[in-house]
TrEMBL record:
It comes from Sarcophilus harrisii (Tasmanian devil). Keywords: GTP-binding, Magnesium, Metal-binding, Nucleotide-binding. Mg(2+) binds at residues 71, 88. It comes from the Eukaryota. SMART domains: ARF, SAR. InterPro entries: ARL15, P-loop_NTPase, Small_GTPase_ARF/SAR. Signal peptide: none annotated. This is ADP-ribosylation factor-like protein 15. GO terms for molecular function: GTP binding; GTPase activity; metal ion binding. SUPFAM superfamilies: P-loop containing nucleoside triphosphate hydrolases (SSF52540). GTP binds at residues 64-71, 110, 167-170. Belongs to the small GTPase superfamily. Arf family.
Length: 229
C-alpha cells in the first residue's frame, strides 16, 4: 500500500466494479440518439418531401367511323363501365390517366353527317388516335381508309404522331395487322411520319394500354425518328 493513499485499493476496486454499468449506460444513450436521428430522417422523407412533380398533359384527337369502338375503349381506359356506352354524336373529352402522362382525348363522332366537321376540332392537337373496325365490311373499310388518308395529309395533323388501332381483333372476320397495313397503303402514304399500327380488342386492355404507352413515348420525343411502325 502506498503511503498517503490508504484507501486507494478500495476506491479503485469500487470504480472498476462500476465501469461496466457506466459503459452500458453510455451505449443506451448512444442507441437512443441513433434512433432519434433515424426517426427524424424517416419523418423528413415521408412528410417533408412535398408533392410529386406534375405529370405532363397532351391534347389528342380521336377519330374513326361509328362502331369502331372509340367510346368503349376510352371509357374502359378511364375505369368506366362500357355496358351503357352510347356512341358519340358530336364530341366528348376524357382525361385518360397514365403513370407518366395524362392524355386529354377529344373524341369526335364518326357518323356520316359529322365526319365533314372533323377538321374544325383539329386545332391544338398534339397527337392523333385513329380507331378502325378490322372486322368491318369492305365498304366501311374503304371509307375508313379514305378518312385516315385525309387525316394523315391534313395540314394540322400531318406532322403529329398517329396511333392507329385495328380494333375488334376478337371477331372471326377481323383482318390481320399486315392486311390492314397493305390495304390502307400505310407504308407509302405515311413515309416520313410518326405512326404506330397495333391490333387491339376490348378483351385485352393491357395491350391497349401498351399501345397508348408507345404513343406517349412518341409524344415525349424531342428528336423524333421519321417513321415508327
Amino acid at each position: 500500500m502506498v503511503q498517503g493513499f490508504p484507501d486507494m485499493p478500495f476506491r479503485f476496486s469500487e470504480w472498476s466494479r462500476k465501469l461496466p454499468t457506466r459503459r452500458m449506460s453510455e451505449c443506451i444513450q448512444i442507441s437512443f440518439a441513433v434512433c432519434r436521428i433515424g426517426i427524424y430522417t424517416c419523418f423528413r422523407a415521408l412528410c417533408c418531401k412535398g408533392p410529386p412533380p406534375p405529370r405532363p398533359e397532351y391534347d389528342l384527337v380521336c377519330i374513326g367511323l361509328s362502331g369502331a369502338g372509340k367510346t368503349s375503349m376510352l371509357s374502359k381506359l378511364c375505369g368506366e363501365s362500357p355496358e351503357n356506352v352510347v356512341s358519340t354524336t358530336g364530341f366528348s373529352i376524357k382525361a385518360v390517366p397514365f403513370q407518366n402522362a395524362i392524355l386529354n382525348v377529344k373524341e369526335l363522332g364518326g357518323a356520316d353527317n359529322i365526319r365533314k366537321y372533323w377538321s374544325r376540332y383539329y386545332q391544338g392537337s398534339q397527337g392523333v388516335i385513329f380507331v378502325l373496325d378490322s372486322a368491318a365490311s369492305e365498304e366501311e373499310l374503304e371509307t375508313s381508309r379514305k378518312e385516315l388518308h385525309s387525316a394523315l395529309q391534313h395540314p394540322q395533323l400531318c406532322t403529329l404522331p398517329f396511333l392507329i388501332l385495328a380494333n375488334h381483333q376478337d371477331k372471326p372476320a377481323a383482318r390481320s395487322v399486315q392486311e390492314i397495313k397493305k390495304y390502307f397503303e400505310l407504308e407509302p402514304l405515311a413515309r416520313g411520319k410518326r405512326w404506330i399500327l397495333q391490333p387491339c380488342s376490348l378483351d385485352d386492355m393491357n395491350a391497349i394500354k401498351d399501345s397508348f404507352t408507345q404513343l406517349i413515348h412518341l409524344l415525349e420525343e424531342k428528336n423524333p425518328e421519321p417513321v415508327r411502325m
